[in-house]
Amino acid sequence: MKFASLAIHGDGKTAEHSGDVVPAIHLATTYRQPGVGEFQEYVYTRGSNPTRLALEKRLALLEDARYAFAFSSGMAATDTAFHLFKVGDRILLNDNVYGGTFRYASKVFGSLGLSYDLVEDFNTLDFDRLPGGVRGIFLESPSNPLLRVTDIRRLAEKAHERDIILIVDNTFMSAYLQKPLDLGADIVVYSATKYYSGHSDILAGVLALNDGEKAGRVKILQNTLGNPLNPADSYRLERSIKTLALRMDRQCANAAAVVELLRTHPKVKRVFYPSVGGENRRIQESQSRGFGAVLSFILRDDCDPARFVGALSLFDFAVSLGSVESLVCHPASQTHETFPPELRKKAGIEDGLLRLSIGIEDIEDLLLDLERALEAA
Ligand SMILES: Cc1ncc(COP(=O)(O)O)c(C=O)c1O
After folding, report:
1. Is 233 a catalytic residue?
2. pLDDT at 341
3. Does 169 qualify as catalytic in the annotation?
4. Is 195 labeled as catalytic in the residue annotation?
5. Which of 67, 98, 176, 196 is catalytic?
6. Are 54 and 153 contained in the same domain?
7. Quick one: 164 and 216 in the same domain?
8. Do residue 234 and residue 270 come from a single domain?
9. Are both 94 and 176 inside the same structural domain?
């Protein structure tokens, strides 16, 4: 079966006896056991819950993964992935990483005994000159907010030659557009708050992988750190995922039209999108089925980003992405304000940079709104 059918029907098996075509929401936090020393599959909801399990099975199917876990946020999934490392390990992150992940590395790694380095371009990284102790790579491709694309297949090969674990944050793509595990990554994480939820109303995270030993460890961590997704949101997330393919197709088509407008507009200095730039586009086409629906751009120097944002009426000025409504954000003061200013500058996150997340509205309305705002900028 293909993606949309799998998202709706899963493997066709339901754990319910009732014949429900959707999973039930199991709210019980504890489950009756047969007797002393005898346990059944469900004991306590932090460790396992039937609604969450139904979601996790569906996620694994969509990801081509043997195991998937649902968490209370994207950061909870990322936190769990970082707990797979041990004291002394060094992790490489792309320098255009989500601000919250950078905050984790800069503020939390120290207490876990981990260290990190930022890498500008993993495509040209010389693995023979890595610092000692590198055990992990955490990558976003396309990156955030400059939409730089990394060749995941090549990076996975290089990493594995040196026993380095490759973790990909696939939030910008979703499993519908890109499957990092099939490209050789070891672990994929998501902010499911974004495209999987799709409606800006569920905070959730996902971690998927194929290695049984690591999956066992993740299960222990999920139970011990106490960060699984609750049953009601597990149900709501599974429901949202059923329309992921539809939403994504529309969002990508709308984004392509917006990119076309911005690239040829006299008030726009530069546009960042995976289809822009020869090498970026070539790699993206080789590993994904689309370019996604997040793009960034810089206005001409004599234009005012604040005036542009203020003149928009359909685009909400808000962080986050991936939902049905279009959003505009200012990475330097919002998603990436955790980066010190000099690092932000070095990573190319200029003060004039704006990021758009394109929704499913009628494209004529989106283009008109952008044209008016550009006029006012
Ligand atoms: C790429 C990316 N990864 C991870 C996260 C963190 O996810 P959450 O907000 O669900 O904790 C975000 C949130 O914006 C993100 O954009």
Report:
1. no
2. 87
3. yes
4. no
5. 98
6. yes
7. yes
8. no
9. yes
Measuring from each residue's beta carbon to the nearest atom of ligand 1, which residues come in under 6 Å? 73-75, 98, 100, 140, 144, 169, 171, 191, 193, 203, 205, 320
249 and 234 within one domain? no
Answer with the one of 201, 218, 241 that is the final residue of a domain.
Answer: 241
Longest dimension (CA), the chain: 75
Which one of the listed residues 89, 169, 186, 233 is annotated catalytic? 169
CATH number at residue 229: 3.40.640.10
- Residue 174 has what pLDDT? 98
* pLDDT band per the 50, 70, 90 thresholds, residue 336: confident
Report how far ligand 1's centroid is from the alpha carbon of 366 (Å). Answer: 25
- DSSP character for 130? P
Q: What is the pLDDT of residues 2-51, one digit of tens each?
A: 999 999 999 876 656 678 889 999 999 999 999 999 989 999 999 999 99
What are the start-end ranges of the H helices in 73-211?
A: 74-82, 99-107, 109-112, 152-161, 174-177
Average pLDDT over residues 85-101: 96
Does 104 qualify as catalytic in the annotation? Answer: no
Give the DSSP H/E element, type plus range, for residue 61: helix 50-63
Instruction: Tell me, in angstroms, the distance from the centre of ligand 1 to residue 311's CA.
Output: 27
SS3 of residue 342 by DSSP: helix
Q: Could you tell me how far CA 271 lies from the centroid of its own chain?
A: 21
Q: What is the CATH number of the domain that holds 268?
A: 3.90.1150.10
Report the number of distinct structural domains present in the chain.
2
205: Cα separation from own chain's centroid: 9
Structural domain of residue 271, as residue ranges? 244-376
162-206: per-residue pLDDT in tens? Answer: 999 999 999 999 999 999 999 999 999 999 999 999 999 999 999
Domain boundary among 225, 241, 257: 241
Residues in the chain: 377
Atom of ligand 1 nearest to the CA of 319: 14
Per-residue model confidence (pLDDT) at position 15: 56
Pocket test for ligand 1, best of 78, 102, 194 (most atoms within 8 A of CB): 194
